[in-house]
Amino acid sequence: MRTHRTIGATIAVSLAAAVALTACSNGGDSGDGPVTITFWNSFTAADRPFVEQIVQNFNDSQDDVYVDMDIQPNDVLQQKLLPAYVAGEGPTIASLDASLFPSYAEAGVLAPVDDFYSSGLLDPSILPQASLDATTWDGQVYGVPMIATASMLYWNTDLFEAAGLDGPPTTMDELVADAKAITQYTAGQDTSNTYGLAIPETQAIPSWAVLVWSEGGDFVNADGTESLLGTDDTIAAFDFWNDLIQNDHISPVGLTGVDGDSLFSAGRAGMLMNGPWASAGFTDAGVNFDVAPVPAGPAGQFANAVSVNMHLNADATDAERDAAYQFFAFWNSVDSQKIYALGAGFPPTRSDIPASELSDNPVSAKFSEATGGRFYLQGLSTFSDIDNNVVIPTIQKITTGQGTPDELLPDASAQIDAILAG
Q1: Structural domain count of the chain
Q2: CA–CA separation, 81 vs 86, rounded Å?
Q3: Co-location of 190 and 214 in the same domain
Q4: What does each C-alpha distance from 28 to 36, 62, 66 come to in angstroms?
Q5: Terminal-residue alpha carbon distance, the chain
Q6: pLDDT digits (tens, 9 = 90+) for 264-318
Q7: Does some domain include residue 367?
Q8: Which of 46, 212, 313, 358 has the fewest CB neighbours in a 10 Å radius?
Q9: Could you tell me the sign of the dihedral formed by the alpha carbons of 241, 205, 112, 11, in that order?
């Protein structure tokens, strides 16, 4: 199996050849008119209008820089981005999830941006430390925050009331009890059952990671050199939650992120761990809901940290770099962050905007106080290989009865160790 480290080395060689043959096509510093920089991102959901508004505001605010933005579905963006960079045709700026950027940095297609933080354009002390950590690779900073949050627990207030629950739970023991009380399950009635907690397995923030962390398990060690999937604590965590799915039916098996959102939107899931981007859809669906911090388990209180950051093309000219830095600062300005927070429900990237100024969007105000954020498989250039080819298939085997955690996790752990060894 080819790991991302191997792919990264191949891409780096290809990039060197491409740079020798292909002129950079990201924009110009010809001296005539504004410097045009290109910006690729995948903000195709309900927050798209607010991204477009901020970019338009930037373009209207001055005559020196023009941002030409291309918003694409995430799967399309991921298919196009690396080949475009290798061919010398990539965007000046690209937005990437924190889990994906290390493979691009390793491939040599992104430029370090440490000098942005020393330029005085933006004080890094007001930004989320988790985002700064998540954009650091091999001792250098490669990105600037675009959005940052931790997941929270959405809970359906009507289902809680119908089950005689005050809600929301503050511990995982309470969450389990509440999930059991809400669940109304009859075998074969998949389209009408009500579930206590929707637990997506794919195409969503990794809910299983939070459940495993809360019980003291983990996936890799702190420095990303060894798998912990086969440890006793991790096996016990998978056993605990899989038993609740199989025997208490608190969640359907095989959910995607869209399935989980749809179940909650239909009023058939009492709880769901998700980010602020889901709130608009639930509101439009007429669901009576609220959000609360993800409950604490025996090992502590954890949530999924989510950070999407803006990255600079390694081939950017000096003029393009300066232009990109102006846009990075504008995006993270007080005015821009209030537009995005109030419109899209996300917390601001800045710590100096009080929650009281976000009261017009109560979801944004609450997400500003989310706690316990932790990145899943942080800083690994092999993230996609491990997640897509080992962790997700193993979870699917466990939840579909193709083996027990005790049987499957040690082998999966050995696969991860082989990938980490590269």
Answers
A1: 2
A2: 9
A3: yes
A4: 6, 17, 11
A5: 10
A6: 999 999 999 999 989 988 999 999 999 999 999 999 999 999 999 999 999 999 9
A7: no
A8: 46
A9: positive
